[in-house]
Amino acid sequence: MTETRTRRAEWIGTDRVLRWLRTLRDDLCSVRLDPLPPSVWLRWLPHGVLWVAAIGITIGGVAQLQHNGHLGAGLASLLGFAPGGAVLLAMWRPVPAWWLSTGAMLVGAITLHGRLGTTPVVLFTWPWTVAGIIAQLLVLLLLTLRVRARVAFEALAVTVVVTWLLDGVWGAPPHQSTSVVTVVLAAIVVALGTALRGRREARAELGRQASLTEEERARRTLLEERSRIARELHDVVAHHMSVISIQAQVAPHLVENPSDELRENLDGIRQNALEALTELRRVLGVLRSESPDEDAPDVPGTGPHSPQPTLDRLDTLVENTRAAGLTVTARINGERRPMQSGVELSAYRIVQEALSNVLRHAPGATAHVEIEYIPYGLLVSVANSRPDGPAPPSPGAGHGLLGMRERAAMLGGSLTAGRRPDGGYRVFAELPAAAPGARPVPGPTADPTSGTIGAPDPKDDHA
After folding, report:
1. C-alpha pair distances (Å), 92 with each of 37, 88, 102, 142, 416
2. Cis-peptide into 127, omega within 30 deg
């Protein structure tokens, strides 16, 4: 029993070692391309510094190996170019660059081992040359910044083990040992690189979270605006259903001796209208219970139980906006006529939101509202001049445009918004009065940047 447990423990230990070796092989036997990206603040300056460092490492390494190490020019050049090349290679493939730097040190240490002590006055730095130390530190830093922390610590562990085997186990004639300095500096560089990489990943994650939060806020604002539109349109639909119900109830009395079939059909129409009204009230109750504060009246006559506004109240809206400190002019072109309730409600809300945006985001600007009646709909334009100064920060910037576009799209129309050449801003909406999908007949040509729709009107209402 004891022997079985011992064998099982040995097998488990061996399996763990094999798994660790496989992980080490997978992590450090990689030639994956990983270019060093430009710095956010310094752009390509770090790349230039690395090129200069590689040239200096190569020149210093060749000189030390040739003069102090007493190597031939060819061998000294080969061993001296390897650390500098490793620094350059690390800008694209950090893992192979680390192998090149470590391998060059190992070959150089073995080559120089027999020549140590030949010059007792000047002790040679071994197993790492000065150029090799600098190259290894730069390579480890570039490696740590672009690979997982586990891979960086594995590379550090291999560096420490190789250094210990050369200087601590194998040993050499009298020399100036660089083992302790290399190991300490390498550990510091790996720790620094890991901290910088963690900070960079944290900032990237924070940016992703902020982007997701902004998307979620925009999505929530869109849903809230759709709910608000649905609550407003409830009154419009309920009005039509009520009219249908009353007309179905009165119709039998307008006909002499109506047939039973006619009475039955009209009763059915009235009953269906009443059922539809009941369902609408239920839906409205759900929508209002989700956002009870959104129906609070802003000004008298706009409460949740007040009639929905139409273009007949445009003058009141303009006057209220002027009272808030904004200079507004308004003009109505074309033959004014009653429109569908949803069209007038959407046109009113678009003008209201556009003027609110001018108040919030264009301090000191003047605004011009223009409504034009075309044969199959409305053209709505709200333009403002260049603001006098920067706008104060406002949360939810751009969310008002979502609601305006939803209102236009609901009617089968379109809405555009953008800056004008003079530095102002313009919102332009085309609202067809026909059913969504019908192609509206265009009215007068509208310049998307001028802020006007047609020719000047002598009835222009100036502030």
Report:
1. 9, 8, 17, 10, 46
2. yes
Q: What letter represents residue 91's amino acid? A: M
Report DSSP state, residue 68. Answer: I
Per-residue model confidence as pLDDT tens digits over 332-388? 999 888 888 888 888 998 999 899 889 888 888 999 999 999 988 999 999 999 998
For residue 39, give the DSSP letter.
Answer: B
Taking the C-alpha atoms of residue 374 and residue 335, their distance in angstroms, rounded to an integer, is 8
Q: At CA 424, angle to CA 418 and CA 427, rounded to 5?
A: 40
The DSSP element (H or E) to which 428 belongs, if any, is: strand 425-432
More confident residue, 420 or 291: 420
Angle at 359 between CA 358 and CA 365, to 5 degrees: 65
> Distance between CA atoms of 11 and 170, rounded to whole angstroms?
31
Q: Which residues pair with 415 in a beta bridge?
A: 429
3-state secondary structure of 150: helix
- Structure-token pair, residue 174: 């009298």
Q: Helix, strand or coil for residue 126?
A: strand
Q: Do residues 381 and 427 lie in contact, with contact meaning Cβ atoms separated by under 8 Å?
A: yes
Predicted TM-score (pTM) above 0.85: no
Q: What values do phi and psi take at 454, rounded to 5? A: -125, -160
Please count the other Cβ atoms lying within 10 Å of the Cβ belonging to residue 448.
12
Name the nearest CA neighbour of 239 among 161, 342, 370, 344. Answer: 342
Beta pairing, strands 176-177 & 125-126? parallel
Q: How many residues does the chain have?
A: 463
pLDDT band at residue 24 using 50, 70 and 90 as cut-offs: confident
Burial code (b: 16+ CB inside 10 Å, e: under 16) for 325-356 equals ebbbebbbbbeeeebbbbbbbbbbbbbbbbbe
Quick count: other Cβ atoms within 10 Å of Cβ 315? 12
CA pair distance 263, 249, nearest whole angstrom: 9
CA separation for the pair 270, 262 (Å, rounded): 12
Single out the residue of 57, 96, 103, 98 nearest to residue 80, CA to CA.
57
Nearest-Å Rg of the Cα atoms of the chain is 40
Strand ranges inside 283-344, DSSP E: 327-333
For residue 22, the model assigns a pLDDT of 85
CA atoms within 13 A on the CB side of 129: 36
Strand partners, 461: 330
